[in-house]
């Protein structure tokens, strides 16, 4: 498939074709999306337009309802497949992989904290109407303030980051009820006067995620929409704490996807354009015969495969927990999977940054041209891997390895 994004939107390559029937077919569909995105990834990154077209492509491909219930028109797939889909899409465009991963997490948020009635309502709404999620839940900012007015909850405040919200249909809000310590999540329509996007995302990488700031002004919801609250009392369970390891593995997989894209792009350049070095005393006819180039690709590919297998294993473990009965989860099981995901994340960051740098060594000086765009991969991983300090993930794994200590749930663990 060699369509550009613009061409794919004019005439969907999946129009009239049956929907994928199993996990393997969905991974193939994700690969088709990645191939479209990869063609003009660099041009779109440079342009930094609002990623509305990219989100529409995800919808047209059916990927946005991958986790949605079958009875409402979704694919009914599990998280272990979703994580691989995120990785594959990110191999074509890291920003779009992040958008899709965040969408999956926010679409699942109602299962993490909601009542059974809220779960049914939200999943029916987003799946049947193919709605895309964003979120304004950056915990490093001050919480949004919630006041109760005439029996409704009124959200006000500002968030520095709100990935995907401007191109979303639904936004997850989180704030603290004034005069209490009650955190309240709610899902609201994204397109309303009370949500103002600042269009101020101008960072080194992940430039097409629309992750700029957002102001929330008098956004009202009924108590019935306060996720997990019954008669204004929150129904807490250990299951809700899976939110953090689940999204950390989202990060891990789009890092790995970006690294895959870097290695694939570099290999194509090496095969087609890199010249052998004629002054080494062991001269080769082509760059593909150079021992140092073969050694580098062998090292990078091996490390990437190892990191991917760790991510796959962790994905299978947390998927089993996410799809089990919510009340069955124990703190110990949650802690063990969080450690495994912390290990997978640090492996992904390490190999991703290494690949993002070393691809220049195996492509040559001419590959530094802006038209080639090899810089995009390092920039993307370097930017998002600063989301929370990777040193703390190393410490969590160390504490488990040395003392058998599992991490306590936090906003980042």
Automatic annotation (TrEMBL):
Pfam families assigned: Acyl-CoA_dh_2, Acyl-CoA_dh_N
Residue ranges constituting the Acyl-CoA dehydrogenase C-terminal domain according to the UniProt record: 250-387
Keyword Protease: no
SUPFAM superfamilies: Acyl-CoA dehydrogenase C-terminal domain-like (SSF47203), Acyl-CoA dehydrogenase NM domain-like (SSF56645)
Domain Acyl-CoA dehydrogenase/oxidase N-terminal: 43-119
KW Oxidoreductase (keyword) present: yes
The organism's place on the tree of life at top rank: Bacteria
Protein name: Alkylation response protein AidB-like acyl-CoA dehydrogenase
